[in-house]
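Board work, copied verbatim: PfkB domain protein
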Amino acid sequence: MLSIYDRLYPEKKPIDITAFGEVLLDMISREEAPLKECINFTRYFGGSPANVLVNSQRLDNQTAFISRIGDDAFGDYLKDILKDERVNLDCLQIDSSAATPVIFVNKSKATPSWLAYRGADINIELEEEIYEKIDQSSIFFIGSFILSKNPARSTALKIIDYAVENDTLLAFDPSFRASLWPEGEKGKQIIKDIISKSDFIKPSLDDAEHLFAKDTPKNYLKKYHQCGAKIVILTLGKDGVLVSDGKNEPVHIEVFSEKVIDVTGAGDSFWSGFLSGILRSLTIKESAKLGNAVAAFKIQGVGALSSIPPLLEIMSYYNINPAERGEN
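↓ predict structure ↓
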């Protein structure tokens, strides 16, 4: 059973992190206003798993992406960025009959509102190259957006089982929203089933409320562990994060920056820092600190891919180091 004071020593493989899911166009408003009142939008690269990979690549990790885009101008734009960021695209599929997905988001210092127009992302097909990529990877990351509709969901569930059976570390972002699922509330059980298979999950307070109804942070942690979660990182917005293993007292880590320009992609940048720590055998607690540190730089810019310093610079700036073995 994992403890927040444990270090993991992932087997070194050609790919550090492979992610499955959407890459899309984020149309973020220039105004800080409710989405229905926003008039002016600027396009940004988006999609949680794609953001995680690009930020992870910038933090000196090797990454690969399993995704599907439309054979269109927006798809070309996103693919060019992924290429420039050196993400492995062997498993990027091109769809000639469905468009690249687009999401409209309102600029916000709190949790933003959004409206999604789905397309090629839903049609990700299971190909033999995908299994080969998982075999080559230390960590497999997946979010929840891609799980909401078939055939992508069916493909994802098979890959998740394959990763777990082959002892690949599984990181899952359980962001359930019933409005995205044709089955509505029934989709909760699928999310809970994946939670039970995951090594790390990182829900927000909003995510927890959508999955379990309104409750306290500590009760949310208990409920996630009751689902079978090993390590839960509950993000609390301006109040930082709670890191829990279900047996030790949860650890509270405060936010590292009070300067907030835009929170879009903050959770994805946290994942990038956290997984970078896990890959370098920092303790789980120290890895969460590193996640907070990367997110602190992210929220000072606009868009999910605003710049972040090199990994060692971030660790030095926030005095993050692996010297926590044996702490209680």
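Confidence is low (pLDDT under 50) at residues 323-328.
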